[in-house]
Amino acid sequence: MGFFSTILGFCGFGVGISTGLVIGYYLFIYFQPCDVKNPVIRPLAEQDSQSLQRLLHEIPLWVKNPDYDRIDWLNKFLEVMWPFLDKAICKTAKNIANPIIAEQIPKYKIESVEFEELTLGSLPPTFQGMKVFVTEEKELIMEPTLKWAGNPNVTLGIKAFGLKATVQVVDLQIFAQPRITLKPLVPSFPCFAKIVVSLMEKPHVDFGLNVVGADLMSIPGLYRFVQELIKDQVANMYLWPKTLEVEILDPTKAMKRPVGILHVKVLRAMKLRKKDLLGASDPYVKLKITESKAPSKKTAVKHKNLNPEWNEEFSIVVKDPESRALELIVYDWEQVGKHDKMGTNVVPLKELTPDEPKVMTLDLLKNLNQNDAQDDKFRGQLVLELTYKPFKEEDMSKDLDNPLQKAPEETPPGGGVLVVVVHEAQDVEGKHHNNPYVRIIFKGEERKTKQVKKNRDPRWEEEFTFMLEEPPLKEKLHVEVLSTSTRIGLLHPKETLGYVNISLADVVNNKRINEKYHLIDSKNGKIQIELQWRTSS
Amino acid sequence: MGLISGMLMGIVFGIALMAGWQHMMRYRSNKRIAKAVDIKSLSSLNRDDLKKICGENFPEWISFPVFEQVKWLNKQLSKLWPFVADAAEAIIKDSVEPLLEEYRPPGITSMKFSKLSLGTVAPKIEGIRVQSLKKGQITMDIDLRWGGDPSIILAIEAALVASIPIQLKDLKVFTVVRAIFQLAEEIPCISAVVVALLAEPKPRIDYTLKAIGGSLTAIPGLSDMIDVSFDTFFSLVKLYAMLFGLTVFLYKDTVTSIITDMLQWPHRIVVPIGGIPVDTSELELKPQGKIKITVLRANNLKNKELIGKSDPYAVVYIRPLFKVKTKVIENNLNPVWNQTFELIAEDKETQSLIIEVFDQDVGQDERLGIAKLPLIELEAGNSKEIELRLLPSLDMLKIKDKKDRGTLTIQVFYRQFNEEEQLAALEEEKRILEERKKLKEAGVIGSTMDALDGAASLVGSGVGMVGTGIGAGVGVVGSGLGAFGSGLSKAGKFMGRTITGQSNASKRSGSSTPVNSVQENGGAKPL
């Protein structure tokens, strides 16, 4: 009998608990309103010390750390914009989601899924500080602290088998510290080619998930499990050093990198006009790509010759063959005073077929302005051989992804190429003039950058290469900033603004070093030099 | 028995379970909401809040200026600047050169930038303030400072003379830029941006303009011309005239006035964004009301003349584009004008009525004093007589001179427009500007700036320009003036930038004696 009643008791408990759950559900959950209310925000000054204590947890980073900047103005901006942003985002989300839902539901025998409610709530995301990092590389790094504790309400109504259920996401909270890197910086708007985002810490995610009115996330244990799961998923994808890359510009175009080489052979000129009073002219030719900043190239001067033969070859790097042209000017050399222009002409680069030598005979003109009345005087002719060799696509994309290029094939085994990039200098100061240029001396070989006039913070961005038989483990590189006077005068024609000797052993080990060096013999001067050691292996 | 008690226990347990869950739900929900509230309130802290939170240990590195500092933005900006400069240079070159080509005056064969560099100094943002003054709008004030070192060389090639490079350098801009974002419910959520320069503090835009190989200011000294044959001389004059015609656009005061009139708050530029067709007419500046001002009299003016007394006249304006002048009362320190003018106000809250009193002189007219009446002090529909003290300058910060400069009595009457009148006023304004443009094209007035100067001052100053050192040539040049057309009219404007009334026309044209024209030149120095 006792056994029987126990069995009955268990059965009764089983029936009772289901009844009880149903009653309880209706009593406590179903009839409770589940719409989202706007929280009341009281000014801080009115709050008691207990709630202030709670605040200390969330205190913004800019209060705690001096290296974080406050961006409350952005918070304010977002706050005013938020209602509009909310509507716009929700509308877009609905428009995107609805077709996808319509496509997917027939598979699962669900009649309909629709948004009953979709709003992001009244609380905007906030930024609790911004930190930026300055490096020597061509990139901008910033780390905003993003905290969004919102009160969104996303309610999905699902109809299946004649029944209707609702799933509601409320109180979504996302705290994250993304690192946003804009790189590489390029000289065309918006001035960077890629946005790289990664998370510095695992993000904090919290929300309520109401299924038919009951919050699943408040079942003890489940919340933690779900939270961990989400964190791990996100972390797997974006936690530093994993990144999300968004390409903004095509880097090859944006960088204005060289895309080919133009080989010019200046053969000869014929029947030049006489410019000198006594004897024949002393002609030489200057070549340059239009609108290029690179210094122009010159042939030798052929003295007293109106039909000179040069047979000199030049290679010029080309960045934009579509719009640029080769400009040729024949000058008459003079011992004293200004060199006279004897004639000029241009060859648009798009007229050249790649990889095909072309011999051209050009008539020399007085100037290049079409509007100007040309005098029909015959000024002679210039004969050239031109070959345009574009770089191959593969070569270009390769060296973009990897800043460490390989040495060219003709490098001797064991050796390599030392690349020196002179970026910029700061606070270089001359006593009498300030027209700095850089001289690099390596193993007695001397290279120079071009001169920047009247500038204490010059930028050169010039690259020099040295081909070496063996790694320069014991060598040093001598970098010297010099200034020459622009005026002709015997006083202070040249002065040193500072120098630095860089040991190259580190470069061989590190392959690449990009540093600012303090200049010796200079008050505050610094120079940024990038060194690369490229080997064939 | 067992069944019933089991069921009862089960029900109680089930209900308790649900109650527990519900309690849990409520607890977690409250916790989340509390956190959301905390984070919201921490997103805009002020000093008192922080003091309350931190108590004794208030961090010293924190301050709360009106304009929030943006060090991080400046760091990024200075790093980015060389690239921005490069990109902007290319864009400016590509977009401005065809424009220049279009507006190229005849006789000049080409105008090209031979150098265009925005310099190495990045603009600094001293601070940012964000306000929401109107629903659906965000007002952002940016305190911008750019003490840059750009160097822009415009090479002008004329048919007869070699290239004349004009260089613009040391451009400095110190101003507060106000950007108003009109919000919309479509991505990108901003339908239009309104840009203006805040009037307070006054925008400062400085630059140096020079012709390479000598400052432009030096060119009026054409004394070497005497030896040159007349043929060449004329072509040179023509050239310089055109050159001046160009520089008028770049001429400091003019440019500053134009910028002020176009950009200084409440005047603004409206830029629609994002391809959403929106009605921006709300954002545009519209005439709000009309001010009837009667300049009654002035008392105890300062005497600036050596012989006799000042010859005062008053200039009244709200926008520098629409100036009105009284007649000149000669030899009187207590003049009574009793002249009435009507001016249009666009923004009663921020605009002011400016009244300047000048001493009409042979050379540059001297300012006897200036007075300002903020329109906000006026009541609509009420006529009021106001006595204003004349000040040496509106910017009293640097001026030590506290001497009394006399007073000015005016009567003002402000009337708010209704909608129809508003439209009519807008049309009228457009018409006036259009008319002036036409006149300008015909070469009658030097510039839209000083419409009242009229042809008289043009002739006088134009002669003044050529007159330096070529006394004999004056008559010839004077008569040949008409032929020079609009180019020279601009030149005349450029040289004789004096504000004169119509009534002194006779005196003005009589000034074509060499002595006077030299004085003219002296007056025209401020470049």
UniProtKB/TrEMBL annotation, chain A:
Classification via Pfam families: C2 (PF00168), SMP_LBD (PF17047)
Main location: membrane
Record InterPro entries: C2_dom (IPR000008), C2_domain_sf (IPR035892), SMP_LBD (IPR031468), Synaptotagmin_plant (IPR045050), Synaptotagmin_SMP (IPR039010)
Record protein name field: Synaptotagmin-1-like
GO MF: lipid binding; metal ion binding
Domain of life: Eukaryota
Record's subcellular location: Membrane
TM stretches of this protein: 7-31
Domain C2: start-end pairs: 240-362, 399-517
Topology in membrane: Single-pass membrane protein
Swiss-Prot/TrEMBL keywords: Calcium, Lipid transport, Lipid-binding, Membrane, Metal-binding, Repeat, Transmembrane, Transmembrane helix, Transport
GO biological process: lipid transport
Organism in which the protein naturally occurs: Olea europaea subsp. europaea
Family as reported in the entry's similarity comment: Belongs to the synaptotagmin family.
Residues of the SMP-LTD domain: 67-249
GO cellular component: endoplasmic reticulum; membrane
PANTHER family tied to this protein: CALCIUM-DEPENDENT LIPID-BINDING (CALB DOMAIN) FAMILY PROTEIN-RELATED (PTHR10774:SF214), EXTENDED SYNAPTOTAGMIN-RELATED (PTHR10774)
UniProtKB/TrEMBL annotation, chain B:
Compositional bias (Polar residues): 499-520
Localization of this protein: Membrane
Disordered as annotated region, ranges: 499-527
Family affiliation: Belongs to the synaptotagmin family.
PROSITE patterns per the UniProt record, alphabetical: C2, SMP
The protein's name: Synaptotagmin-5
Start and end residues of each C2 domain: 272-390
